[in-house]
Design brief:
By secondary structure, this protein is an alpha+beta fold. The chain has 3 domains: about 250 residues, Bira Bifunctional Protein, Domain 2 (BirA Bifunctional Protein, domain 2, 2-Layer Sandwich), CATH 3.30.930; about 130 residues, YbaK protein (Alpha-Beta Complex); about 100 residues, Anticodon-binding domain (Rossmann fold, 3-Layer(aba) Sandwich), CATH 3.40.50. The protein is about 25% helix and about 30% strand. The chain is built from 15 helices and 31 strands. The strands form 8 sheets. Strands 3, 7, 8, 9, 10, 11, 12, 21 and 24 form a 9-stranded mixed beta sheet that branches. Helix 1 crosses helix 11, helix 2 runs antiparallel to helix 6 and helix 2 crosses helix 11. The protein starts with 20 loop residues before the first helix and ends with a helix. About 40% of the residues are buried. The structure holds adenosine-5'-triphosphate and magnesium ion (MG). The site of adenosine-5'-triphosphate has 15 residues, from strand 8, strand 21, strand 24 and helix 11.
């Protein structure tokens, strides 16, 4: 490909709307352009990367026994009504009506469609297992579309659905996908980790996420410094810690704390540590007001709380509702004398003589003790893990990392097949629901994650397996015929070797060509300058190294192949 013909509109300025590096670089390097918030056009360089990612994914899905299909983006509302998700999916679903006023969804995911197809045509256990997948656009009206391709409203996903006879079958399918995903992210050349994940609203029991490590990642990952334990923050198991053995229970004291509302206020005013206080958070859980209490310096994890309560909807209660029920505003709440269900974090049960609000504005209690002063409905793990927490599996300590979720695998069990009455006949002629799993990879997000992980101050550094082109050949002075002739000859030779090559044949200064080559992140640059003429030598430079190699012209192809093919 000739630079003069390639459509890659690079920008000199960092676009102001782009917060994260991958978004900035993909815009600046002329890979993507925005149509609307979270909706993008993939320009030629980007689409080459996307196709490379797709092909690696496709090969591994096929190897694992998957069969590729293509399902409709437009999905009739009836299928979603049947699974019960038409209501549940809420505002994240794009909905539209046809001329007959019938409702459709733009597919955010495809369980409903695939389950209907399989139910219609698979009748016997002999036809199972069945693994069907597609690579296609998905539509989700995210509350906060952001970071470019990272969280789009239209994005490319690979989704595979497995159908098995029973749980053992599902185990086998799940292991196959787990293995295939590891193959994929290794082949893509990305530094990633697999973590235990919460299966969230989709239901089911086992779930793993594949996280590309990146400092700006949206997800927080917890891992053990000693064993293989790794989980996302929602799932990470927190323990209670040691019981404070020797402290005797002191008498409860009510203290006037005018104007003191936050944990920090109380820490300063009463000189008690944040870890000697508890905070009380009020939630509306499926319409019922409840209190969640945890140590003052901890963060509540709403997903853990929601799972523990088993509720459908959970949101923070309004201060007005709280005042009516508890007689005090947010700054003065506490479990003592509270007439609501109280859910206490595990740590609260091992704390002694703590401080908390008194359910009376401007008053707090000191020396509160669980059991003596109040009895919670349940004692559960509802806080976020923090660095230094003990590992739930070994003697090690937990550490934190940030990552980008690029893949997610779930065991669905019979959640969908039950709801949609999708069944087959087993060996005894009995009707049984399909046992299902679903397995997603964000293709477009993976491209963004690759950039987020692999870049420097000059631009993108594509991992070789997904680089849009392998090599860029740069004649320093395009007016010099000899240089141009040599560049053209190297360009031809490398292409004949099966490499994907760009030649920068533009009439630009060398500095501009080098800047652009770095910005778009081509792994190998070959520079043909005056040395080429005097000594018959050209420069070979890897994008991720500072040094250049000076090579005789007839050795270049072998060297470049070695770098690219490893
Ligand atoms: P998230 O927690 O990031 O919203 P999710 O749990 O909704 O993700 P899944 O439904 O499991 O995601 O989708 C499978 C994969 O699709 C994700 O692992 C991610 O890589 C990708 N993905 C999900 N939502 C988006 C989005 N809005 N933009 C780009 N990729 C996405
Ligand atoms: Mg989501």
């Amino acid at each position: 490909m000739r630079s003069s013909e390639l459509f890659y509109p690079t920008l000199r300025e960092v676009p102001s709307e782009a917060e994260v590096v991958s978004h900035q670089l993909l815009l600046r390097a002329g890979f993507i352009r925005k149509a609307s918030g979270g909706v993008y056009t993939y320009l030629p360089l980007a689409y080459k990367v996307i196709k490379k990612i797709e092909n690696i994914v496709r090969e591994e899905m096929d190897k694992a026994g998957g069969q590729e299909v293509l399902m409709p983006i437009m999905q009739p509302a009836e299928l979603w009504q049947k699974s019960g998700r038409w209501e549940v999916y809420g505002d994240e679903m794009f909905r539209l009506q046809d001329r007959h006023k019938r409702y459709f969804a733009l597919g955010p995911t495809h369980e409903e469609i695939i389950t209907t197809v399989v139910d219609g045509d698979v009748h016997s256990y002999r036809d199972l297992p069945l693994l069907l997948y597609q690579i296609q656009n998905k539509y989700r009206d995210e509350i906060r579309p952001r970071f470019g391709l990272m969280r789009g409203r239209e994005f490319i996903m690979k989704d595979l659905y497995s159908f098995d006879i029973d749980d053992q079958g599902l185990d086998v399918s799940y292991r196959k996908m787990y293995h295939a995903y590891n193959q994929i992210f290794t082949r893509l050349g990305l530094d990633y980790r697999v973590v235990e994940a919460d299966s969230g609203a989709i239901g089911g029991d086992e779930s793993h996420e594949f996280m590309v490590l990146a400092d700006n990642g949206e997800s927080e990952i917890v891992y053990c410094d000693n064993c293989d334990y790794a989980a996302n923050v929602e799932k990470a198991v927190c323990t209670a810690g040691e019981v404070q053995q020797n402290d005797e229970l002191l008498p409860l004291e009510k203290i006037h704390t005018p104007g003191q509302r936050t944990i920090q206020d109380i820490a300063d005013y009463l000189k008690v540590g944040k870890d000697e206080q508890i905070k009380t958070l009020m939630y509306n859980a499926d319409g019922e007001l409840i209190a969640a209490i945890l140590r003052g310096d901890r963060e509540l994890n709403e997903i853990k709380l929601k799972n523990a309560l088993g509720c459908n909807e959970l949101f923070m209660a309004s201060e007005d509702d709280v005042r009516i029920s508890c007689g005090a505003g947010f700054g003065s709440l506490g479990p003592v004398g509270m007439d609501l269900k109280i859910y206490a974090d595990l740590e609260v049960a091992v704390m002694k003589n703590f401080t908390c609000g008194a359910n009376l504005d401007d008053y707090h209690y000191k020396n509160v003790n669980l059991g003596r002063d109040f009895v919670p409905e349940a004692i559960i793990d509802i806080r976020n893990a923090v660095a230094g927490d003990p590992c739930p599996l070994c003697e090690g300590q937990l550490k934190l990392l940030r990552g980008i979720e690029v893949g997610h695998i779930f065991k669905l069990g019979t959640n969908y097949s039950d709801a949609m009455e999708a069944t087959f006949r087993d060996q005894n002629g009995q009707s049984c629901p399909f046992v299902m799993g679903c397995y997603g990879i964000g293709i477009s997000r993976t491209m963004a994650a690759a950039v987020e992980q692999n870049n420097d101050e000059n631009g993108i550094i594509w991992p070789i397996p997904i680089a849009p082109y392998h090599v860029i050949v740069v004649p320093v002075n395009s007016k010099n015929e000899e240089q141009t002739r040599m560049a053209e000859s190297i360009y031809q030779i490398l292409q004949q070797e099966g490499l994907e090559v760009i030649i920068d044949d533009r009439d630009e200064r060398a500095g501009v060509k080098f800047k652009d080559a770095d910005l778009i992140g081509i792994p190998v640059r070959i520079t043909i300058g005056s040395k080429a003429l005097q000594e018959n030598k050209v420069e070979v430079k890897k994008r991720w190294e500072k040094e250049v190699e000076l090579l005789e012209i007839d050795k270049v192809a072998v060297r470049v192949l070695e770098i690219i093919r490893g």
